Structures are given as structure tokens and as C-alpha cells.
Amino acid sequence: MVAVVSVSVLAFGGVACSSGPTPTETAARDFADALTRRDAQAAADLTSDPVAAAAAIRQMFDGLDPTDARFAVAGTDSDAGTFTLAADWTFGDTAPAASGTATTTPTASATASPAPAAETWTYDTTGGGQPVADGGKIPWNPALLAPGLSADTTLRYTTLSGGSPKVLADNGSPLMAEQTVTLVNLDPAPDPAAAAAALAPLLAPYAPGISAAGLTADLAAAQGRPLTVITLRDADVAPIASRLAAIPGVELVKQTRLLTVDKGAQSPAFDGLRQMWEQKQADTAGWAVQLVHPDGSADRLAGRDGTVAPDIPTTLDPAMQAAAQAAIANLPQQAAIVAIRPSTGGVLAVAQNAPASAQGPIALTGLYPPGSTFKTVTTSAALQQGSVTADTVLPCPGSANIEGRTIPNDDNFDLGSVPLHTAFARSCNTTMGRLAVSMTPLALHDAAQQFGLGVDYVTPALTTVTGSVPPADTPAERVESAIGQGQVTASPFGMALVAASIARGSTPAPMLVTGQPGVGDASPAPAPVPVTDALKTMMRETVTAGTATQLADIADLRGKTGTAEVAGQPAHGWFVGVDQDVAFAVFIAGADSSAPAVDAAGRFLRPVQAQIPR
């Protein structure tokens, strides 16, 4: 067999030679190398008009902002003095895809998807037109850089949206959508005090905290940089736009943002949904390299159109979200309400008031001692231990010295000896503390995990922390834990999940985006059905004859109150409950008792009774 060897010979000027590169070849290659290095001045100095060339080359790289750009000489004709320049541009993500076995565990935002393929643009241009002598210059022509480029046009890279998806409520109605907003920017020049004095009265109806003095102080802190004072929706800016624009130093800048359809709707759950929406926009975006004309019009030289991203369906119930927000909006303390549908794990509402929002998303990640709401876990552990039943008669003294710590009931109430279900409904600390002494170090930890408390969930578009119930190695530690104090902590989300787990009989996987449930780092077996059934009965007694009788008018409501001591501060107030297929937790920091939380639960539940499936 004869081996065939293919030899490729690059001929310049139609004649292969070995006498070395011609001046044209040398100049062309030096020019290509300088462009690949993005050394605009070095490339420009090889041309007949270094000033114009340098400006054009710098604008090209600035306008396109590539991930990578490479230039090479594809051929020359030394006799004609021309050469062909091959350009290869890369935009977007060039990171290689991860290798190995794929995982089905979603990320925290659950919007992560394979990065779009790198975007490339390749083309050839022709330069020269006359032979280059030794030390001579390449005739300058902007079209050497890109097809169609001229002295009065520029290049730019831009992304192209294929269409904006909506974020939908559980009933399919739009919850969030892309809308136009106006940024009101204020430049400190020429007279900051006068500008602030003119601006503050116009904006005060939309942001009552804005004042001329405050704006002046903010401008001073900005140290000469423009300040974005406020962002207004179209309906808000329209009546005052002309007066705003007339103030020296004020600039109105239009942008598009994902906003709630209901202007008054607020929730920390919206943050993760915005991140998912932005990722979907990025995943489906197109791109274009544009040749921009002096009048602002543009021709597309390369790229592809974007595709329409699908809408994002959520489990949020607008009526419940609004009712939860209204129930706590006017409280002076930090307050939060989280509601979950036990049958599906769908998050129905996540609300917190302004003092809470100033601290962050406390409804989802804030950790606090859960107080007596944790007696749901303690009672579950005691029933599973087998030493008591719901009807076992136990002492409930006003206070008791248990393992060296004096445990009091609220206001030292004394019930004498009562069945466990009564001690639960009336929230006897002394009973629960005594039950915990004989438990194993892991009893409360394990019982809490059966209700999702202490399990970390990775849930699409929802960042949460449920709480922590560490092992209690000593009887004294178990006494503290049994009444929701000591090292035990829970978030409002975590306690809502506890209530949902009791209602369902097992812990539902939390879910914010329909069809995308969260995944926990542990999957303990659920508590036995007789135990959760007993807890539901006790929680009903809490409402009908216990510590939450002010809600007795709400049919079938089951709940548990809680007051949690905090060193040197007023106690936190809690109420967790279940009304048919709605489980919820109410938390009020520094409430000094559970009563404000119980009242807030009533304000939340009563307006939405018609919304609760029965």
C-alpha cells in the first residue's frame, strides 16, 4: 500500500518562494498579532493614520467586549499589496461543561442550567491596496477591522431578549411581570441643597422618609458621584415627570425590571423568584453584533434571535399573601407569617413587616427560640417513647425545680394533676420539662427531624433554614430543649413546616415553583400516625379550651401558642396552626407573650376563610 502525503503550500503573490516574508506580509502579520494582543496603539502605528486607527480599534474592543478575539493573516498578494485578515471573535461563557455523573439535586436557586454555548463571529476582510515598502504603512481603512465599518459607524455587542416570562400565582394569574421603571438620579452639581429642597416634596408621597436634609446628606456621602434617589413605576412618575426633569441635576433614566403586578405586594420569597427569572432570561437570550450608524440605527452583522422563556408557575396564593402582610404590617416589632399547604408542600405566603425586612428575610432564615410551640415536638417524643399517652395524668404545678433549674408556668398557673392533652393545650412548662428528663439525648433531635425541623432543604428559588435541635446530653439540657429554649432554634418557615408535617402525617417537601420540590439533607421516617393524630387533637383543644381560645370561632383550627424567653429582652411570641390544608407559623419578636401572635393569626385567617379548601 502506498502512503499518500498531502502537503499544503501557502503561496503569496501566486509564487511560492523561500526568500522570506515580503514587507506586506510582515506588516500584515504584525498588525494581526497586535490586534490579538488588543494593543490598539501598536496596531494603529502600523497604519497610515495612527490616530484614526487607534480610536477605531479601541472602540471596536470596547463596544464588543469579547471573551476572546484572535486575528490571523489568511493570505497576501504582495504584488497587489493586499492581504486577507481572518477574525475570530468569541462572546459569552467559554467555560467547559462539568464532566462526571450528573446530579439530580437542585441548586439553592434551582435556576442553574447548562451555560449557553459560546457565541462566535468569524469573517475575513481585505486590507492594503498598494505594496508596502520596507518600513512602510498599511493604508488605513476602517473596513479592515470588520465588514462595513466606516469612519462614521461603530460596533457594539448586545443581548436580545426573546420575550419576558411572567411569574404566576397558584391560580395562574400574573404575580410578577417585567415593567418599565424610572430611576430618579441626582447629580450634586450645581447646587445640591437647592436640588434636594426641590426634589424632596415631589417624592415624599412615594417615599415618606425622603427629606431635603436627608438628600443633602446622601449627596455629601456620595462624594461627587450621582445618587439614585428612588425608582418609580410608570404610573407614579407620569404626574411629576416634567417637574422632576426641570430640577437642575436631576436625570430620569428608564429601565425594565421584574415587579409585582400588585404594587403593594411584598415578600422575601420574591427575591429568589427574581433570580430564577433573570437566569431564564439569560438562558434564552439571543445576541447580536451591530453596526451602529450616526443616527442610532443599527444593522446586525452576526448573532441569533432569543427564544421565549417559559412562565414561572408558583405555589403562592395572592389572597393569603395579602392577608398575611396586612395582619402584621402595622406591628411595631419584627413580625413574620409563613403559610404552607400540607398536602403538597407548596408555600402559600411568606410575609414580614418593615422592621423585620430591615433585618433581612427573617421569615425564611431567621433563627429564634420557638418556646412552647416546640412542645409539639416534645409531646411527639414522649408519646413515641411509650411511657405516656394523651390521657396519662401528669402533675402541672405552677413551678418546679427540675435538674437544678426552676421551671415556671406562665404567671405560675397551677393545674394540679391533669391529662397530658390538657397540659399541652394549657402549655404546662413544668409537665413538659419533667417528661424530658427521662428521654434519650437524641429523642428531641430525632422527633424534630420527623417534622422537618433541623433538616436543610435545597429548594428552587427559595433559600431557607428550618432550625437546629442539637442532641441534649444532660437532663438539664433536655429540660431547656423541651420548652423550646436552650440551644433549640427555629425559623418561622421551620415552624410552619412542623405544623404542615403534623397535618399531613409526614413532612412535605417544601416547594415555591410548581413541580420543583425541595430536597432535604435528611429523610427521617415520619412520626407514627397515632402520634400525629393525637397531636392534631391536642392542637384543636388548644383553640377550644386552651391558650388560643380567642380563635375558637375559626372552625377546625388547630394550633399551639409559644412564648420564648430572650435574655435581657421582651419574650418572643409565637403561634403555629393548621386550618384544613393550610399550615402556618406566626412570629412576633419582643411581643412579651403569645397573645399578639394569636391575634395576628386571626387577622390572617379570617379574611381568607373562603380561600381555604374544605
TrEMBL record:
Region (Disordered) residue spans: 97-116
Gene3D superfamilies: DD-peptidase/beta-lactamase superfamily (3.40.710.10)
Chain ranges of the Penicillin-binding protein transpeptidase domain: 336-592
Annotated protein name in UniProt: Penicillin-binding transpeptidase domain-containing protein
Lineage start: Bacteria, Bacillati, Actinomycetota, Actinomycetes, Mycobacteriales
